[in-house]
Amino acid sequence: MARARANPSTPLEHSWTGEKLSLLAVFAHPDDESFGPAGTLAKYASEGVDVSLATATRPAPFDGVVSARDRLCSCRTSGIRRVCLLDCPPGELDQVDPEIVEERLVRLMREIQPQVVITFGPEGLAGGSDYHVLNRAATAAFRDAGNLTKFQHHFHDGLGPYAPQKLYYCVLPQSLVARWGVQGLFAVPDESVTAILDVSSYTEAMLKALYCQRNAALDFIRWLIEEQRVQWDSEYYALVESTLSRKPRREKDLFAGLR
User: Fold this and answer.
1) Residues 6 or more apart whose Cβ sits within 8 Å of residue 204
2) 238: buried, middle or exposed (CB in 10 Å: 19+, 13-18, 0-12)?
3) Main-chain phi, psi angles of 171, to 5 degrees
4) Would you say 216 and 185 are in contact if contact means Cβ atoms under 8 Å apart?
């Protein structure tokens, strides 16, 4: 099958304010940030960290207006400064040349220079080809953004190589999913979790982010929280790659070792 090629002239929005902490969240779909990392994004934005979001797929044609509104709503409630949309068709990311997706992410990393990058694992939270493609592209971009031999045309645009320091996958531990009793969510063994963030102070922001999205899984999670059947006061990550010499076994801060 011939691979569609994204338009390389499409501008990338970005947020970069100088020498300070920066986090880039990379997800496949416009609603992904509302479930899993919502508290994390709100937490770091409130601490003055530059938080940027890249989503690889655009809203589906039949609900484009709602999805675009929802995405912006979610970003406002989480304190995200900028949305970076790669504008690939939903559900068709596997038809796009993977090098195009990686190139766009490398360019973005070189522009905003995040120390920390977060994304879902290969299965996302519910499986699907978009998650596989985006995970591979984000992981490759993390490795290649600092490589002088990769995408050298960026240098003609005034960008230099830049290597982010830490790559995390946003995950759900098996014990948590078992307590929730939610079917269809992809979970990892508890021992795979390397960072647990206390986001209890950001419950309101997280719920607002959930209210920006409407689908059965998120509605059910929101109902569980509202009925106090579950507590969503922690978010979970697996450190996949790090350029730091010291790698703590269990972290409470994604910027551990950087500040």
Assistant:
1) none
2) middle
3) -135, 170
4) no
46-49: long-range contacts (C-beta < 8 A, 24 or more apart)? 46/79, 46/202, 48/20, 48/21, 49/20, 49/21, 49/22, 49/23, 49/255
Per residue in 14-54, pLDDT tens? 333 346 899 999 988 777 776 668 889 889 988 999 999 88
| Beta strands 166-171 and 116-120, pairing class | parallel
Radius of gyration of the chain, Cα coordinates, nearest whole angstrom:
17
What is the predicted pLDDT for the residue at 49?
A: 94
β-pair type (166-171, 234-242): antiparallel
Indicate whether 11 belongs to any domain. Answer: no
In a domain, 15, yes or no: no
Cα 13 from chain centroid (whole Å): 16
What's the CATH code of the domain at 98?
Answer: 3.40.50.10320
Beta pairing, strands 22-27 & 50-57: parallel
Q: Are 239 and 100 in contact (CB under 8 A)?
A: no
Higher pLDDT, 148 or 76: 148
User: Tell me: the pLDDT tens digits for 226-253?
Assistant: 655 556 788 999 999 999 988 777 899 9
Number of domains in the chain: 1
pLDDT in tens, 170-221: 999 999 888 877 777 889 999 999 999 998 887 666 666 555 555 555 555 5
Task: Give the side-chain half-sphere CA count within 13 A for 201.
Answer: 10
Structure tokens at 113: 């220079």
252 part of a folded domain? no
More confident call, 71 vs 150: 150
Are 173 and 187 contacting, i.e. CB atoms less than 8 angstroms apart?
A: yes
**1 lies in some domain:** no
